[in-house]
Amino acid sequence: MNRFIEGIALSAFTEAVKLDHLLFKLGVYQHLFKGEHHANLSDHQHCRLGQWYQSSAIQARYGSLRAFQALSAPHARVHQAARSALDELPGNNHRALLQAVNDMEGSSQEVNRLLRELAHQVR
User: Fold this and answer.
1) DSSP string over 39-52
2) Which secondary-structure segment (H or E) carries 14?
3) Mean pLDDT rounded to a whole number for the chain
4) Which string of DSSP letters, residue by residue, matches 82-95?
5) What is the Cα Rg of the chain in Å?
């Protein structure tokens, strides 16, 4: 029963984190459209997912699970690619900007997949 409840709680958390990242990306697109390359973006350690992931209790609880272990790198890439996209604005390097946006989206999809897998592994 406890594992079932934990699985439901983790699923709810992962859905909230997915929404957070969707809003993060929306903010990046808004900054891009407005030409705001100096926008302040959270990094992968200070967003809700990053803070959760770095928690020693969470590391102890889920650290042995493959999906959890694989989550850090694509999550960092989401934030790094978003920053790269904004950094490309002043130089009008559209190819590099588009590549950064594609990297952000691809990494975001990988984060979402791993979060689903993690929630499934816990149930």
Assistant:
1) -----TTTSHHHHH
2) helix 2-34
3) 94
4) HHHHHHTTTTT-HH
5) 16
CA–CA distance from 24 to each of 2, 45, 65, 100 (Å)? 33, 14, 26, 15
Report CA dihedral (30, 32, 86, 36) to the nearest 10 degrees.
-80
Structural domain boundaries, residue 77: 2-122
Whole-angstrom Cα distance, residue 68 to residue 65? 5
Q: pLDDT tens, 17-66?
A: 999 999 999 999 999 999 999 999 999 999 999 999 999 999 999 999 99
Number of domains the chain contains: 1
Q: What is the mean pLDDT of residues 5-22?
A: 91
Predicted model pTM: 0.92
CATH number of the structural domain spanning residue 66: 1.20.120
Contact 26, 108 (CB under 8 A): no
Residue 88 in tokens: 């490309």
CB within 8 A of 84, min separation 6: which ones? 96, 100, 103
